[in-house]
Amino acid sequence: MSSSSINNSPQFPNTESSMLGMVGGGQLGRMFVHEAQALGFKVMVLEPEVGSPAAHAADAHVQAAYDDAAGLQQLADACSSFTTEFENVPAASLAKLAETGFVAPSADCVSIAQDRIEEKAFFTRCAPQTGILPAPHAILRTADDLNHVSADLFPGILKTARMGYDGKGQVRVKSIEELRAAFANLNDVVCVLEKMLPLAYEVSVLVARGADGQAVVYPIAENVHRDGILFTTTVPSPHVSAEAALKTQNAALKLIADINYVGVLCIEFFVLQDGSVVVNEMAPRPHNSGHYTIDACVTSQFAQQVRAMARLPLGDVRQHSPCVMLNILGDIWFDGTTEQDKERQPAWDKVLALPSAHLHLYGKAEARRARKMGHITFIAPTLEQAQDEMRQACEILGIAV
Ligand code: ATP
Ligand code: MG
């Protein structure tokens, strides 16, 4: 079937054709399922692993690889619209699903975000409209490319062009010698060397766009990372100037429209010590830094994704309360330095005694260090109270603040 014959009229909940197809079974898929079901939709999840966070909650689970032809066919037979929660899903699978249904975001949009080289080229191409460039960088396809790297890029961060997340596939290098060793260590896969920039703080902008081209932008979120993993998100951003907020929000709206993107998109920016803004990367899906929208906004990022893929009107992005989101990693299940000293249950009773705390656990059976197990949002009348209770929770859970 050609894409022109795909039915683009709205998909209604609570009907025979209300099944939504989700490729990927992680926590983002799980939170999507919760919101979809709240709206009266059903969700079928394609995920190879047994007992995944999303499959637990979904109405149906196809246990197959993301590129398994029979699995994709099962999803295509049951659903008329599809999305993904995992940006490394093969773009070819989304293209396949687009033959029979509505895919949001499209394979083309997802594939830009899957490759740092394409992503940076996209940001650079749009810079005349957005006024924001990516960090100075060099593309390293072969060992020979190392001979042409400008000394100005040191100290830098070597990042694999594909498959990186949570700081994985990244090495900090101070010199060409360190770069050679690190590149060889990554088995000569295609990489990008980025200049290490003097960050003042980091923000992300969540935008959503419907099939009709209508777009909405959420308030700026300020993010703190630890060891390359998101630690907290604070909204409203304590540091962002009105000027930087407007600039990044406008840039996000320009970028999402430029590629005719449908669905939720998150764009990460760096604000440098001199106040200038640099675009880092984008995620073609709801994002960890947008979890705050579940408890703090009129419409969550997951509900927005459901509305966009079902060709329904997007919801109000208004934030009704200040919020801090704290990621919960598997580390707090262990009290010593090795994983042998398993395993304690974090004191959720004490955390839940804090009036502003909303606990979200993802149903992962096994806690591992650096594994995202859940998050807590602190929703309070003032940001100070939310921050204060976040610090109290860290103390209870043994997280250094
Ligand atoms: P994720 O997908 O989880 O957001 P990732 O593995 O794709 O992460 P990046 O977002 O590129 O990685 O980098 C992770 C963190 O490392 C950034 O949020 C920032 O704190 C730091 N970082 C990355 N690039 C730079 C840079 N050029 N200069 C300074 N710090 C950087
Ligand atoms: Mg990032």
β content, as a range?
25-35%
The helical percent reads 25-40%
Distance between the termini: 55 Å
Number of strands: 19
Main beta sheet: 10 strands, mixed
CATH superfamily of the largest domain: ATP-grasp fold, B domain
CATH topology label of the largest domain: D-amino Acid Aminotransferase, Chain A, domain 1
Enzyme class: ligase
Pathway: Purine metabolism; IMP biosynthesis via de novo pathway; 5-amino-1-(5-phospho-D-ribosyl)imidazole-4-carboxylate from 5-amino-1-(5-phospho-D-ribosyl)imidazole (N5-CAIR route): step 1/2
Subunit structure: Homodimer.
Catalytic activity: 5-amino-1-(5-phospho-beta-D-ribosyl)imidazole + hydrogencarbonate + ATP = 5-carboxyamino-1-(5-phospho-D-ribosyl)imidazole + ADP + phosphate + 2 H(+)
Structural write-up:
The protein has 401 residues and is α+β, with helices and mostly antiparallel strands. It contains 12 helices and 19 strands. The strands form 3 sheets. Strands 6, 11, 12, 13, 14, 15, 16, 17, 18 and 19 form a 10-stranded mixed beta sheet that branches. The protein has a 5-stranded parallel beta sheet with strand order 3-2-1-4-5, sandwiched between helices. Helix 1 (27-38) packs across helix 10 (301-309), helix 4 runs antiparallel to helix 5 and helix 6 (116-130) crosses helix 8. It is globular. The mean pLDDT is 94. The protein binds adenosine-5'-triphosphate (ATP) and magnesium ion. Magnesium ion binds at residues 268, 280-281.
Describe the SSE topology.
Elements: E1 19-23, H1 27-38, E2 42-46, H2 53-57, E3 60-62, H3 69-78, E4 81-84, H4 91-97, E5 102-103, H5 107-113, H6 116-130, E6 133-134, E7 137-140, E8 156-160, E9 170-173, H7 176-185, E10 191-195, E11 199-209, E12 215-217, E13 221-226, E14 229-235, H8 242-258, E15 263-272, E16 277-283, H9 292-296, H10 301-309, E17 323-329, H11 348-352, E18 357-361, E19 372-379, H12 383-397
Parallel strand pairs: 1-2, 1-4, 2-3, 4-5, 6-16
Antiparallel strand pairs: 7-10, 8-9, 8-10, 11-12, 11-13, 11-15, 13-14, 14-17, 15-16, 17-19, 18-19
The structure holds adenosine-5'-triphosphate and magnesium ion (MG).
Magnesium ion (MG) binds next to strand 16.
